[in-house]
Design a protein that fits this description.
This protein is α+β, with helices and mostly antiparallel strands. The chain has seven helices and six strands, in the order E-E-E-E-E-E-H-H-H-H-H-H-H. It folds into two domains: about 35 residues, no CATH class; about 160 residues, PX Domain (2-Layer Sandwich), CATH 3.30.1520.10. The protein has a three-stranded antiparallel sheet with strand order 1-2-3, with no helix packed on it. A three-stranded antiparallel sheet has the order 4-5-6. Helix 4 runs parallel beside helix 6.
């Protein structure tokens, strides 16, 4: 008896079958596809929270928002490079939604605590908050369960407000989650290096 090796779709990957038997006497055939290690692509997700900016709606209602840059080759994301801006209260919204949707997870990633004495003019406080928010997002992105939540994708890659994200997830909008993402977060013209992203944080004005 001889073993037979065929090439799958002419791509050079050998498909190895069992030695030929009389098919009437064998209940099934077993075969497998041998993929070279070089064809196994590692999926990476990188996220940065940077570039804090003070937004003044009026004299009494100023707040800081942050740019969120996402760079990935993960199949979980249709848009591989994107940027959007979010404020602290929107991060709070995201965690509350994950808490409601993720009943199987006993402990969600923690956010930096809300500081009643937070100053818009304190570079140290702003830097510490940015680091805490980035760690929060990084911990979300390593959880396949949390990564499957539509709220995470809308938060990271759309420009929708909190009310609009709630409506979109609930199916009360004319556009889908995928359409909101496609129209939303700004795509970067090139793949930025870590130095490029860090430079934005170090050169930002806090006053």
């Amino acid at each position: 008896m001889k073993s037979h090796v065929r090439h799958f779709f002419g791509g050079g990957f050998p498909m190895v079958a069992l030695p030929q038997y009389d098919i009437r006497k064998v209940p099934f055939f077993v075969f497998w596809l041998q993929l070279p290690a070089s064809h196994t692509m590692q999926q990476d997700i990188s996220v940065w929270v940077r570039d804090p900016r003070i937004q003044n709606t009026d004299f009494w209602h100023a707040y800081i928002d942050y740019e969120i840059c996402l760079l990935t080759n993960s199949l979980c994301f249709t848009k591989k490079i994107s940027c959007t801006r979010r404020r602290f209260s929107e991060f709070v919204w995201l965690r509350k939604r994950l808490q409601v949707h993720s009943l199987l997870i006993s402990k969600l990633p923690q956010m930096p605590p809300k500081n009643l004495f937070f100053s818009l003019n304190s570079a140290r406080q702003i830097s510490e908050r940015m680091k805490g928010l980035q760690t929060f997002l990084e911990q979300i992105l390593v959880s396949p369960y949390l990564l499957s939540d539509s709220c995470v994708h809308l938060f990271l890659q759309s420009r929708l407000s909190v009310a609009q994200m709630d409506a979109c997830v609930a199916g009360r909008t004319r556009y889908s989650v995928a359409q909101a993402i496609e129209r939303g977060g700004q795509s970067l013209p090139r793949f930025p290096s870590t130095e490029d992203l860090n430079q934005g944080s170090s050169s930002s004005s806090y006053s």
